[in-house]
Amino acid sequence: MKKKLGSILIVTLTLMTVLSGCGSKAKASAQKETVKIAYLPITHSLAVLEEEELLEANEDSNIDIELVKYGSWPELLDALNSNQVDGASVLIELAMKSKSEGIGIKAVALGHKDGNVIVVSNDVKDGTDLKGRKIAIPHRQSSHNILVNEALEKNGLTIDDIEVVELAPTEMPSALAAGTIDGYCVAEPFGAMGVSIGAGKVLYDSKELWDDSACCALVLTDKFIDEKPEAAKEYVDQYKAAGAQLTKEEAKNIAKKYLNQKDDVIDISLQWISYDDLEITEDIYNSLVEKVEKYGLSDNPPTYEDFVKNDF
After folding, report:
1. Quick one: pLDDT band at residue 30, thresholds 50, 70, 90?
2. What is the pTM of this model?
């Protein structure tokens, strides 16, 4: 009888210990701040995806990341501008426009550096042969628009010498293959897709036209920054750390998990991009502002002091 009571006591104590541990973990999880981040499934968002992976494995973190995937920039921007999410990886020119229109947001880091290409049909001989061609971009408010303008200027042409069309990124490789456009510039991996299927070739990568070019940025809402400053600081710090350790091998692993692309497309795409230093410096931002004004994207872009936040 004593042995039986002893066994029951041991089992009871063990269960109490296990349940106590589970309660502690649940309590710890409940105390974490959830940060909702919007993104598009593109290589330009890999630092956001890498950070989520790292924090998920880090029990000491005070924040949890909830990734919210969108299918287009307008959808994502609507969610960001209406505070449905705490932040987003977004085309920096779109965020600048929102800021100019009074939306409470701050750019806190770059999404990446470089990472864009101008892909053209195989019959385009060189940059001067762009004249009279139809070139697609994803949005007028984009670095892709700037890069197309830079390529034209490099060859003595202007935007009036070509036909520019706005097209959904997913449609660009097939449109090039079908001959309905002559080229395009867009977020990756869609440039790499056009090359991979043989529909076109790279005319320029962004480093040739605008070295260390800004394209996407990590943007947080003022509401999130003001109401949860500690969570905002931790999120930004961890984001920059995630970018710094995002090697080509790790970037490929993350891309394969989230982007549903073939290995060769990912390999091609990752040749052109880097994530190792995602600070938005004043020089980088002023270079962007100069091009935004020069090519008519905006005549009233926000100042560095109003738009960029580095002082967490």
Report:
1. low
2. 0.88
103 and 240 in a single domain? The answer is yes
Which two three-digit tokens encode residue 107?
A: 């750019």
Query: For residues 206 and 114, what is the distance between their CA atoms, to the nearest angstrom?
Result: 6
Element (H, E) at 288: helix 282-294
Burial class (CB in 10 A: 0-12, 13-18, 19+), 273: buried
With a CB cutoff of 8 Å and minimum separation 6, the contacts of 230 are 33, 62
Q: What percent of the chain has pLDDT over 70?
A: 90
- Residue 133's Cβ-count burial label (10 Å; 0-12, 13-18, 19+) is middle
Domain boundary at 192, 209, 226, which? 209
Domain encompassing residue 142:
117-209
Where among 186, 209, 232 does a domain terminate?
A: 209
Integer angstrom CA distances of residue 292 from 144, 147, 192, 221, 296 = 11, 11, 26, 23, 6
